[in-house]
Amino acid sequence: MITKTLSLYKNAYSGLSPSTWWLSFVMLVNRSGTMVLPFMTIYLTSPAMGYTIGQAGFVMALFGLGAVTGGFLGGKLTDRIGFHSVQLITLGGGGILFMVLGQMKSFPLICLFTFLLSLVNEAFRPANSTAIVAYSKEDTRTRSYALNRLAINLGWAVGSAIGGLLAAINYELLFWVDGITNLTAVLLLSYFLHPSKQVKPAKKPVVADPSHSPYRDKIYLWFILLTILFAGCFFQLFTNLNAYYKIELHFNERFIGLIGALNGVLIAIIEMVLIFKLEGRRSNLFYIVRGTVLVGIAYFMLNLFHIDHLLALLMMVVMTMGEILVLPFMNTFWTARSADHNRGQYAGLYTIAWSIAQTTGPFLGSQIAEYAGFNVLWWVLGGTSFITAVGFLWLKRYMKV
To answer: Is this entry keyworded Transmembrane helix (predicted)?
Structure first.
């Protein structure tokens, strides 16, 4: 039994290019410093800062607005100057801005630098997504994305756990660590994945089909709309849910950090093997539908049960299984509709979808929580997740896949 399990894990990780592994390692280092975002709402509503949850929601909305702008610019720049340069510029700029934001205390300056930080940070994503495609083969693409997500989530687990400890000491430390890991990632990316060590990307065709654009691809635009709805629900996991745990359930920062760490650990243990077993057996949308339903169930659990520490962990398990079934196959879906000359723009629009959700989701969620209560918020999120699942199911039938 042990031998069979070890063989399964070995097969799940085999066949990936060295560049894919290096890129994932860089992401692991970078995301090990992911501490600011999951604790931003708690930080702003802490006695030291004294802002309301509505004001914190406004700041997170600005974070999302900056991300929309960054996703658009990052996609355009990736197609023009290449994914490597864009990754270096955005990681370096983000590292500096994290440190600066941690020094800001007035609400206007917090809003301004949150927007700038988000713009630079999110411009990184289209370039990174394009790099994964460039470093992988078609038959290993979903697993290459899964490996990158594994690195991100392992880093998230480390960042959440350590972030909870640091937050209990001084919230300002979170900004310094996040900035330092960004700058460390720049050095690693520059050394291990220098363009001179990589194969040259395919040349842009002289004449491109103007209809082959993410902004004219009707199927892709419907997919993007549904992605926004899903992501709007999903982002509550890192913002208003943590505030709920602190404000309503009185969990301490250490335990909130451990809940976030559980998400990363489960992804690290399960995702690659599950993707290896599922990839190619059904359409991408088949798994996306089922994962979206699980996310809805997770939010319903918050109202259907009395949430104690154990059930909070169980809710995260259900949420994480939904995430595992949705996110890797979403990436495979959009890459399959793109080509070499416009992949940055497809990646950019996908990034924009998540950024719009990051703008509207936490902000609207915070307003619902403030004026109607957290229980209403969980019903809305669960219901929206189920409606989104129906939308993905319709898209699957429309495409006849």
So the answer is: yes
pLDDT for residue 207? 37
Q: What is the mean pLDDT of the chain?
A: 86
- What tens digit of pLDDT does each residue of 43-59 get? 888 888 888 878 888 88
Instruction: List the domain range (segments joined by +) for residue 276.
Output: 213-400
Residue with token string 């604790």: 39
pLDDT tens digits along 312-350: 999 999 999 999 999 989 988 988 888 777 888 898 899
Domain of 22, CATH number, reads 1.20.1250.20
Identify the domain boundary among 147, 169, 195. Answer: 195
